[in-house]
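Kindly inspect the following:
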Amino acid sequence: MPYSHIRGIIFDLGSTLIEYENRPWTDISFDGQKLAYETMASETDKLPDFETFNTRLEAIKDQFRVRARETLAEWRASQAPETLFRELGLDNPKRRGERFIDLFYTAVRDQISVEDGAAEVLKTLKDRGYPLGLISNTIYPRRHHESDLRQFALMEYLTFRIYSSELGRRKPHPDIFRAGLDLMRLPPSDILYVGDRIPEDVEGARAAGMDAILKLRPQREYPDPLPEDLTVIRRLDELPVLLDE
């Protein structure tokens, strides 16, 4: 498929520019919650034992996840511990929930990695005159992801970054793509979206009028065979070559 008409590019974040699951997510989540619990338990005697705390926290998270899947209304990671702290009768549950997630995120950041060639590809595209943006489904605050982007020298190339945790809608809801289109200020047909999931990224972007490319994540299951009209890349450095065709 020729891409000579493309004038702007929007990227997904996780598993497209930065890999957030270099370990099983269940292990990362457990370690992060244990770290946050132990730190906060040392400051108050009102928390139950970790197993009781963690079991209830996971149940609350499941409730938020189900609502998000059904409605595409995004939730924030801090809402789950905030809910639990409120149930436990602790003061300032909102502040405590936010601090819990800040502590939790240490376990996430300790194992993330940048996708091969990400900074070089973004620089190449920026030098060619493409405006670049980012739309990410995430329950975590902007400050954590912006720190991740700075860590891997990606931030300077992305004109805008939209996070579902701020917008309140998650892909493939049209509102989050419309927000990107408003910031890109180009016709949808002139924009290419690059992401690693078919329903959220490819189908969501196409429904908004954009072209889309799927960046395969090796550990993710995809339909077999993939749709015939779907352009696929395995590495980011394939993208500038495709745009030259």
About this structure: Residues 25-109 form one domain. The chain has two domains: 8-20+113-244, 25-109. The longest helix spans residues 50-71.
